[in-house]
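Example (one chain per record):
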Amino acid sequence: MRLILLGPPGAGKGTQATRLVEKYGIPQLSTGDMLRAAVTAATPIGLKAKAVMESGALVSDDIVVGIIDERLDQPDAKKGFILDGFPRTVAQAEALDVLLARKGLKLDAAIELKVNAEKLVSRIVNRAVEAKAAGRPVRKDDDPEVFKTRLAAYFRDTAAVTPHYAAKGALHEVDGMAPIAEVAAAIDAALAKVK
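Predicted structure:
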């Protein structure tokens, strides 16, 4: 199963990815984790990424796609994968299409967790309040102002990716505001149709 999870920050992608990793026995591929691993392993693409990151610049799409290319060749990704945090733009989605085609692979589904932005901000504020009340540290990205900035960036840049996958017939929309178990059931129902 080769999947992409789409949706704004706080939509529940991490929660659902953890469940899908266990269910399908496939890795969740986070671009941030892959970048750090490639830098640590000093792969050729990792060395390029390190130089860019040390300069303070953003890592280019070419480097990110190169890192995904390397990662998909590892044995644990042979049965499939879940991409989380990529693609973030239409250009990245198109580059991923080319990469998968070159490897003779096909994306099974892009699952979009649809949310109400106002209710999502409220959910994040509540999560921060609950963390404080329980004596746990509040995640930096749960600060309401930081979160609103991340949400705006998502709707400005990444939301444009969903029509790309809709046009390919790969997009499955799920109500991300539903209870976790209902979201999981809706994802499972969508994936049952693509097997």
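Caption: The CA atoms of residues 112 and 119 lie 17 Å apart.
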